[in-house]
Amino acid sequence: MSKITIRKADGTWTVRAGGAILAESRNALELTEGDYPPVIYFPREDIAMAFLDESEQTSHCPFKGDARYFSIHTKSQIIENAAWSYEAPKPAVAQIANHIAFYGTEKVAVERI
């Protein structure tokens, strides 16, 4: 089993895409799983959900549960499947319920400010 740790992420974290700030939070969570880089999960209340549309994509993690994905809509583009959430995570990672994580790419910046 992959060891998963979740802790409050230090500082203020943001998500930017298409020139807009999609999320800003002092209450983000940092999830570390095995040797993977840490992933920042943002509370839904700190995300501009109007920029996100649920997509058809889903996936399953044996440790976290079933994920659903979101595409980001900016003024100039749609960034497909750029974020995901575990709506009903397994009990060991229950803290990430009501949180969304974003893939950091050349189009989406996830950073501590």
UniProtKB/TrEMBL annotation:
Pfam families referenced in this protein's UniProt entry, alphabetically: NTP_transf_9
InterPro entries: DUF427 (IPR007361), DUF427_sf (IPR038694)
Top-level taxon: Bacteria
Domain DUF427: 14-103
Protein name: DUF427 domain-containing protein
Species of the source: Roseovarius ramblicola
